[in-house]
Amino acid sequence: MADALPPPPPAIVITGSALPEAKAERVYAVERIGPRLIAQSPTHELDQLLKEVPGVQLFRRSDARSGHPTSQGVTLRGLGGTASSRALLVLDGVPQSDPFGGWVNWPAYDAAGLSDIRIVRGGGSVAYGPGALAGTIEMTSRSDAGASGEIDVGSRGSFEGQGRGGVQAGGGVLSISGRTSLSDGFIPITEETRGPADEPAPYREWSGRARWVAPVADLTELQANIAAFHDWRTRGTDFSSDRTNGADASLRLVGRGRWQWSALGYWQWRNLRSSTAGVSPGRLTATRVLLQDSVPSHAIGGSIEMRPPLHDGIELRIGADARRTSGETRELANYVAGQPTRRRIAGGETWTSGLFAEASALLSGMTLSAGARLDRWQVSNGHLFEQTIATGTVTRDERDPKRQGWLPTARGGVLAPIGGGVSLRGAAYLGWRMPTLNELFRPFRAALDATAANANLDPERLAGAEAGVEFSRGAWRLSATTFVNRLRDAIANVTLGHGPGSFPQVGFVAAGGAFRQRQNVDAVAVRGIEASAEWARGPWSLRAGASLTRARMRASGASALLDGLRPAQTPSFAGTLSASWEKGGKGASILLRRVGAQYEDDLNTRLLKGATTLDAFASWPLTDRLQVVGRAENITNALVMAGIGGDGSIERATPRTVWLGLRLR
Question: Is the Cβ–Cβ distance between 120 and 623 less than 8 Å?
Answer without folding.
Answer: no
